[in-house]
Task: structure prediction
Amino acid sequence: MTLTPDSLFSLANVLVLPAWALLAFAPGWRGTRALVLSGLWPGLLAVAYAALIATHYLGPHGAEGSFSSLAGVAAFFRNPWGLLAGWVHYLAFDLFVGAWQVRDAARRQVPHLALVPALALTLLFGPVGLLVYFGGRAAFGRPAAATSFSS
Result:
């Protein structure tokens, strides 16, 4: 298999789906806790993202784009490798948010069936799924125990 942006895009999409299936269908399973809820799976996607960024933006395309304008951001994604990096960024963060939702829902006793639509929407539309989760948490959840951020 040749490592092209297209082939890696397909591979990343296939490799993230089992993690989402574990969150939706086996959230309490030991394997889900070890692989997804621990942050391992999103962390591996983050490593892939870092590798793509390092190889793309530390190379000849490093001067392309900026974060100061929409046109500058679009320039980052003109190259397929940069676009792939952006996609893996989405996959990593959306999976991290999905794992957080499962942990937070358990802590707040949100029924898992109320969480599943939010997980699906987080996979497909990121922030929309987070909004749906917040709505479900408000409707079905209990307040979380207070936490202290002081040392």
